[in-house]
Amino acid sequence: MDIPKFSDIEDAYMRIEKYIHFTPVLSSAAINQIAGCNVFFKCENFQKVGAFKYRGACNAVFSLSDEVAQKGVGTHSSGNHAAALALAAKQRGIAAYIVMPENAPEIKKKAVKGYGGQITFCKPTLQAREDTLSEVLLKTGATMVHPYNQKEIIAGQGTCALEFMQQQDDLDIIITPVGGGGLLSGTSITAKYLNPDIKVFAAEPEGADDAYRSFKSQELIPVQTTNTIADGLLTSLGELTFKVIMKNVDDIYTASDVEIIEAMRLIWERMKIIVEPSSAVALAIVLKNKEVFKDRNVGIILSGGNVDLAHLHF
Amino acid sequence: MDIPKFSDIEDAYMRIEKYIHFTPVLSSAAINQIAGCNVFFKCENFQKVGAFKYRGACNAVFSLSDEVAQKGVGTHSSGNHAAALALAAKQRGIAAYIVMPENAPEIKKKAVKGYGGQITFCKPTLQAREDTLSEVLLKTGATMVHPYNQKEIIAGQGTCALEFMQQQDDLDIIITPVGGGGLLSGTSITAKYLNPDIKVFAAEPEGADDAYRSFKSQELIPVQTTNTIADGLLTSLGELTFKVIMKNVDDIYTASDVEIIEAMRLIWERMKIIVEPSSAVALAIVLKNKEVFKDRNVGIILSGGNVDLAHLHF
Q: Strands B96-101, B25-26: parallel, antiparallel or unpaired by DSSP?
């Protein structure tokens, strides 16, 4: 699989610009004081469907030819990618077939249904998800849209940094959370193209640290078991995202759930915005590695804001 | 007491502009669809100290002559006004003496202390609060700054609508919550000056509906007992704010706590921003009186975002 180029990201932006929100960049004097550096937050929690995932899904859906598109798109996911794909498909007026484990949270099922996605439930194993999706794709002729390990997805996610570096043109460092690596890959391509001197870091929960281990060992090591509240970051890197990350990313840091919750609380309390645990990992690593970030201009992508208000971690 | 004029609000804005945040106006396609009108939210939950109160406090503090100011300022409050006055005083480099009931929530005490306020505790009765404040003022020579029934406070709060109507110049209706009436009074002066055709409405919780009853009976009726989660709106109108409101305000609506919580949840879930219950009352009345607002451009001031995350109402 080809690594996307910066021009793919520019093309993606032209393709999706009218469908997405141009999200704001916020900062907090109180957080800067605590962190000892200038932190700029790109608020993808305000993106449509409440997460950056809508950028990649939109690019994938609108990249399809009319002939292919009319048969719909499909994926297996219980998270933001499912909702994002459902809404992107709705925007194009085509079907979205979403395979979800039968034990997925009600709130996630409701979101996908709310955006018009057609859900097929399966047993909660990866094997069952893949088998069920294969059946659905075979029956419908729909096109599979991968949550991260796909060129169009990476290019779509890379449009976030494109906006960010235009809104804040003096960033020394840019940090994203890493799960499957779509956001990190896209961000790294944009950031290094626009400013070869910028550092691109990734933030990962200790309880799902396959990217950290893969990066350090220079070998793709999928995660075996996961244990973290950062439920958007449970997946492992794919072959394509791993390749981009090894080429572009300067370092990967990890944070514990306690540190993640503390950072999340700081964002909620000081900035009055709602972010999901996965979004708080980047601030957690800034706060625990202050010497690395001291006095620098640090850009953090807040990846999403979808939390179940009835089950908060505070 | 004189009713503030629009020129007082312009003066206030010149005085405080460099100390306050110019807060954003946000909107949500999902909420517009549910409400059946176009709602624009002025985000004073992002204001310093997390509430519009900082505008009035700043104006009061920076209106004082150097000679008077150097003896400090004082108030009795356990809410956002106390924190706002403490920070405004800190900005001017003077003391803030805050009288608080000894049973005030820890989180409020912490906020006031964090901004450098000097707290004197008293018994939790209005009499004790007023007596204690008198003693403190006598001893220190500090100037009393009222939370709402004071010209400088009203003029300061009126700067919020000044920004709002510049950011969104086609509002048909503007709605604020009403407690003591400082924000409502200031908003009404600005709004009616800039656009005599605009409607100015107030939103009040059923469980503290003195403004509603006073407005309808055209007679100032202080609240006797209160019972609402909108803890920023428990106070009664003052003589000055009542006078402004009778002159400028078009109508006052009330909402129940159940309706307030539902509106608050909608804001949190759909907009991914944190607002306190008092801020959600305006959206609650829009949702329960849809025929009044149908297809109009409705401006809502989200008054603040200070909630105790350990004790949410969801």
A: unpaired
The distance in angstroms from the start CA to the end CA of chain A is 42
- Buried residues in A295-304 as b, exposed as e (16+ CB within 10 A): ebbbbbbbbb
* DSSP for B228-283, written as a single string: -S-TTS-SPP-HHHHHHHHHH--EEEEE-HHHHHHHHHHHHHHH-B---HHHHHHH
Query: Does the beta-carbon distance from A309 to B273 stay under 8 Å?
Result: no
Are residues A230 and A177 in contact, defined by beta-carbon separation less than 8 angstroms?
Answer: yes
User: Which residues are within 8 A (CB) of B197 and not within 5 positions of it... i.e. 6 or more apart?
Assistant: none
- A78 catalytic per annotation: yes
User: H-helix or E-strand containing B122?
Assistant: strand B118-122
Q: What are A223's two structure tokens?
A: 């995660």
A290 and A198 in a common domain: yes
Tell me how far apart the alpha carbons of residues A228 and B141 are, in angstroms, rounded to a whole number.
55
What single-letter amino acid sits at A115?
Y
Place of tokens 């509430």: B51
pLDDT at A124 over 90: no
Report the domain count for chain A.
Answer: 2
pLDDT in tens, A267-284: 999 999 999 999 999 999
Structure tokens belonging to residue B3: 């009713």
Across the A:B interface, residue pairs with CB atoms under 8 Å apart total: 38
> Could you tell me the maximum CA-CA distance found in chain A, to the nearest angstrom?
57
Which token pair is A88?
């992107």
Percent of all residues in chain A with a pLDDT value above 70, rounded to a whole number: 100
- The CA-atom distances, in angstroms, between B300 and each of A113, B267, B280 are 30, 12, 9
B95-135, pLDDT tens digit by residue?
999 999 888 888 889 999 999 999 999 998 889 999 999 99
B127 and B269 in a single domain? The answer is no
Residues A171 and A253 in one domain: yes
Inter-chain CB proximity A271 and B46 less than 8 Å? yes
The pLDDT score that the predictor gives to residue A125 is 86
For chain A, list the strands marked E by DSSP.
25-26, 38-43, 73-76, 96-101, 118-122, 143-144, 173-177, 199-205, 251-255, 297-302
Distance separating alpha carbons of residues A155 and A179, to the nearest angstrom? 16
Flag whether residue B106 sits within 8 Å of chain A, measured between CB atoms.
no
Catalogue the active-site residues of B. 53, 78
Q: Determine the distance in angstroms separating the CA of B28 from the nearest CA of chain A, rounded to an integer.
A: 10
Residue of chain A minimizing CA distance to B304: A272
Last residue of a domain, one of B91, B120, B144: B144
Same-domain check for residues A29 and A165: yes
Cβ distance of B272 and A273 shorter than 8 Å: yes
User: Measured between alpha carbons, how far apart are the two ends of chain B, in Å?
Assistant: 42
